[in-house]
Amino acid sequence: MADLANDIRLAVDSGEVAVGLNKALDSVKDHTSKTLVIASTNKKETLEDVNHVAKIANVRVLKFNGTSMDLGAVCGKPFSVSVLSILKPGNSNILKENYE
Q1: CA atoms within 13 Å, Cβ hemisphere of 84
Q2: Range 55-63, long-range pairs (CB < 8 A, 24+ positions)
Q3: Is 99 a member of any domain?
Q4: Which residues pair with 39 in a beta bridge?
Q5: Calpha distance 75→95 (Å, rounded)
Q6: Is 97 part of any domain?
Q7: Residue 67 — left, alpha, or beta (φ > 0 → left; ψ -120 to 50 → alpha)?
Q8: Domain-located, residue 45
Q9: What pTM was computed for the model?
């Protein structure tokens, strides 16, 4: 099984991503998002909103088992990242893998 954190980092480094809740939701609405990654420690309402919008747009949501700070660190950002949208996967297999 592939490691989600490694694939996230590869997508950030070699592909194109939208960082942050508003940018991620915008990418879903304008049909450029391929997959959403959400930190598992987000508020329940945020998780529900993201899942609802993604379901309507038929976009997969991956739950990152860590905090927003952990997700930010995986992305190489010096700040917390609650949601990340994968626009172009680059060299990662994030669109092809099944993560549990």
Answers
A1: 34
A2: 57/28, 57/29, 57/31, 57/33, 59/28, 59/33, 59/34, 59/35, 60/34, 60/35, 60/36, 61/35, 61/36, 61/37, 62/4, 62/35, 62/36, 62/37, 62/38, 62/94, 62/99, 63/37, 63/38
A3: no
A4: 64
A5: 17
A6: no
A7: beta
A8: yes
A9: 0.93
Number of domains in the chain: 1
Place of tokens 């598992």: 40
Q: Summarize pLDDT for 10-58 with one digit per residue, the tens.
A: 999 999 999 999 999 999 999 999 999 999 999 999 999 999 999 999 9
**Could you list the residue range(s) of the whole structural domain that residue 31 is in?**
4-87
User: The tokens of 98 are what?
Assistant: 């099944």
Instruction: Please check whether residue 98 lies inside any domain of the structure.
Output: no
Single-letter amino acid, residue 50: V
Residue 76's SS3 state is: coil
Is beta strand 83-88 parallel, antiparallel or unpaired with respect to 16-19? Answer: antiparallel
User: Which CATH number goes with the domain that contains 69?
Assistant: 3.30.1330.30
